[in-house]
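can u do me a favor
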């Protein structure tokens, strides 16, 4: 019975943290250290069917991040979180549709303004890449 109580307690904490992160992501409850830089698109391909995808022709968009000041790499709070082979996702982490990719004029070797945001307060995703010039939460997010 003690083990069941412990398991239920841990499950409750996990559920609470999951919902807290979703609220934090939207409401800005978490504080991040912002590192400006650029993202270079390294590949665009059809997303695997097992991924979190938009339903219509989902695309997997990979990018590499480079900070404006290369000295910042030595001061990363999460140095094991790689700047290479990351993915552009929209809305709740979905791979965007081909239509979204085309509408945003995204091609291999394109460069975009990008911020590497590293958590410094509260509980959210430790590192989030932000693209201020792309609408990552469009109204009709998968269209």
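np, heres the sequence
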């Amino acid at each position: 019975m003690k083990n069941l109580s412990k398991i239920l307690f841990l499950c409750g904490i996990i559920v609470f943290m999951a919902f807290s992160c979703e609220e934090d992501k939207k409401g800005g409850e978490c504080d991040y250290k912002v590192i400006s830089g650029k993202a270079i698109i390294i590949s665009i391909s059809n997303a695997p069917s097992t991924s979190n995808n938009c339903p219509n022709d989902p695309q997997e968009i990979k990018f590499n991040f480079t900070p404006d000041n290369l000295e910042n790499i030595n001061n990363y709070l999460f140095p094991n979180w790689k700047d290479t082979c990351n993915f552009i996702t929209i809305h709740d982490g979905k791979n965007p549709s081909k239509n979204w990719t085309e509408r945003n004029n995204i091609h291999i070797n394109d460069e975009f303004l990008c911020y590497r945001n590293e958590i410094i307060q509260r509980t959210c995703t430790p590192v989030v890449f932000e693209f201020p010039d792309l609408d990552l939460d469009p109204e009709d997010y998968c269209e």
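The first strand starts at residue 31 and ends at 46. hope that helps!!
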